[in-house]
Specification:
Elements: E1 4-12, H1 19-28, E2 34-37, E3 44-47, H2 58-74, E4 84-89, H3 96-105, E5 112-117, H4 122-132, E6 138-145, H5 151-156, E7 174-181, H6 183-189, E8 195-203, H7 211-219, E9 228-231, H8 237-249, E10 260-262, H9 263-267, H10 274-285, E11 292-296, E12 303-310
Parallel strand pairs: 4-5, 4-6, 9-10, 9-11
Antiparallel strand pairs: 1-7, 1-8, 2-3, 6-7, 8-12, 11-12
Length: about 325
């Protein structure tokens, strides 16, 4: 068992500026997706755009999302843990200088001990965060991405979801923040984490379509029941087939392998923010009766698996 706990977490996604609202709007099926015209074939394609951000320019939208994520997380944190180091992954259009300028002007600067803009993305950023907590009492990790900005690129590659291309993706935008901490801090400050991390493994050879199978086998050595399944896999064939091979390899570990909680169906493809967003959803819904296992794909050619459980169980 890893000495890693998720103290608090939250998201900003197209259906809401926090997780509670985002889930409620999604479950109410209030027209969660929009559509844009594909310049390549002239057809309308599904997208997921955040409607409650007025800014139109990409950098301004990114920092609007960041401010919302920070507001959500800081509202949940005990004063004893502030200030915190902030580890963050952002679209490549954001430089260290631009982020430093944001910190200097931000109302949250007094709650941040230092900021580190990481080059690790997706699953590798999550791996980095789990290792980095060793040297801190707690860390704040934020991931923001905007695949919707690459709509035309996806169109050229014929990767967009539609009734004619059901294996395509739904480009979205959004952000997520999580605070990781350790058992000693939890006990000393008498904190109540959302969940605890029981295992985490990453596979960097996703191109052979068997990464999820390998991950299921290695995770099966520490968990005999994967419980509820969460994932950021899209409808792309190599995602679906990779997960399918995992079921075939270790079917006894999956109580209900077809019942997968897919954030792509809820909020579209969140790119480099998808791994942490999946973790946030699972952490907030973790059951005292059964653990949850995450199959994490992302956009960077890796796969990861994580099992979490309810704190105190």
């Amino acid at each position: 068992m890893l000495d890693r706990y998720i103290l608090c977490s939250d998201v900003v996604v197209p259906t809401g500026f926090n997780l509670d609202l985002a889930r409620a709007v999604y479950q109410a099926d209030l027209g969660n997706f929009d559509s844009e015209k594909d310049s390549v074939d002239g057809q309308m394609k599904t997208v997921a755009r955040i409607p409650f951000i007025a800014e139109e320019e990409s950098v301004s939208r990114i920092f609007a999302i960041l401010d919302m994520v920070m507001t959500n997380i800081m509202g949940k944190l005990t004063i004893n843990l502030k200030p915190l180091p902030l580890y963050i992954t952002l679209p490549d259009c954001i430089t260290d200088a631009v982020l430093a300028d944001w910190k200097e002007k931000s109302e949250f600067s007094k709650y941040i001990s230092h900021v580190s803009l990481r080059q690790e993305k997706g699953n590798q950023f999550l791996e980095y965060a789990l290792n980095e907590i060793t040297d801190h009492d707690a860390i704040l990790c934020v991931a923001i991405d905007d695949p919707i900005r690459r709509f035309d690129e996806y169109a050229q590659e014929r990767l967009l979801f539609s009734s004619q291309t059901p294996w395509g993706i739904i480009p979205s935008e959004g952000g997520v923040g999580l605070v990781f901490t350790k058992r000693a801090v939890v006990d000393t400050l008498k904190l109540q984490p959302e969940s605890k991390v029981d295992s985490f493994f990453i596979d960097r050879r996703a191109d052979d379509g068997r990464a999820c199978s390998r991950l299921a086998r290695v995770n099966g050595k520490t968990s005999t029941n994967f419980g509820y399944i969460y994932s950021d896999m899209t409808n792309q064939r190599h995602h679906v087939e990779d997960y399918g091979f995992a079921i075939g390899a270790r079917s006894e570990l999956f109580p209900n392998p077809e019942a997968v909680n897919l954030i792509n169906e809820m909020w579209g493809n969140l790119g480099d923010a998808s791994s942490l967003t999946t973790l946030t959803l699972a952490s907030n819904e973790v059951s005292s009766e059964m653990c949850s296992t995450l199959f994490l794909f992302g956009d960077r050619g890796t796969r990861a698996i994580m099992t979490i459980s309810k704190y105190g169980v």
